[in-house]
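dumping this here so i dont lose it
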């Protein structure tokens, strides 16, 4: 079993731990993008470069700044505390793929719940198995997972409704803007026509005035 060490930005070192523990820390958000990893406490490398940690996702904020790269599940706490919206854009550091945070995070949470349910349903090695108790625990976790799935489905439906409403509003605003642009173009054309007529009338007035002055000045 390999021993791994974690050094945070304050140069505090933690370990040794096995790789599974290190991966769990990454999923819990306990490993940041500026932290470093080593197997001998002499040679260190940036945590996101350890592929097993799956610190692949970067959040692209509206002001142009970024958060990450972090493990996808590490972002769930930022969603829960309101720091990030499910509609935030995230990009995969290795592939460059861009996606909505909620679209990627929800399936990952469901899979985590399933893995947790399966782990609790299996008796620990070397311990006597109580069939009824295990069945009760399995039923409890299955119920919790079903409830969580219903909440997630409801959240997805609500998000879809909000997105559809926003898209409809955006289309309506775009159509209104296009109509306003056409009205402005019509007004500009009318203004140019009026200006042209004014210039023609002004030129005609000048010609008539010259003719009038000439006739006035003519003797007899």
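and the seq i came up w/
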């Amino acid at each position: 079993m390999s021993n791994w060490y974690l050094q945070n930005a304050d140069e505090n070192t933690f370990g040794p731990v096995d790789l599974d523990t290190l991966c769990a820390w990454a999923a819990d958000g306990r490993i940041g993008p500026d932290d470093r990893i080593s197997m001998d406490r002499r040679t260190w490398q940036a945590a996101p470069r350890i592929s097993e940690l799956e610190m692949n996702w970067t959040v692209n904020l509206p002001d142009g700044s970024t958060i990450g790269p972090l493990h996808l599940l590490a972002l769930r706490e930022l969603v829960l505390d309101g720091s990030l919206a499910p509609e935030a854009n995230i990009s995969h550091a290795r592939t460059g793929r861009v996606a909505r945070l909620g679209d990627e995070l929800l399936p990952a949470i469901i899979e985590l719940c399933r893995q947790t349910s399966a782990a609790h349903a299996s008796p620990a090695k070397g311990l006597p198995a109580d069939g009824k108790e295990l069945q009760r625990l399995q039923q409890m976790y299955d119920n919790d997972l079903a409830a969580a799935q219903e909440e997630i489905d409801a959240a997805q439906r609500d998000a879809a409704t909000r997105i559809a409403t926003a898209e409809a509003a955006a289309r309506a605003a775009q159509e209104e803007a296009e109509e306003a642009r056409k009205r402005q173009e019509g007004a500009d054309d009318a203004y140019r026509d009026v200006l042209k007529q004014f210039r023609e009338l002004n030129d005609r007035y000048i010609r008539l005035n010259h003719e009038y002055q000439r006739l006035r000045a003519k003797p007899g």
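The first helix runs from residue 19 to 27.
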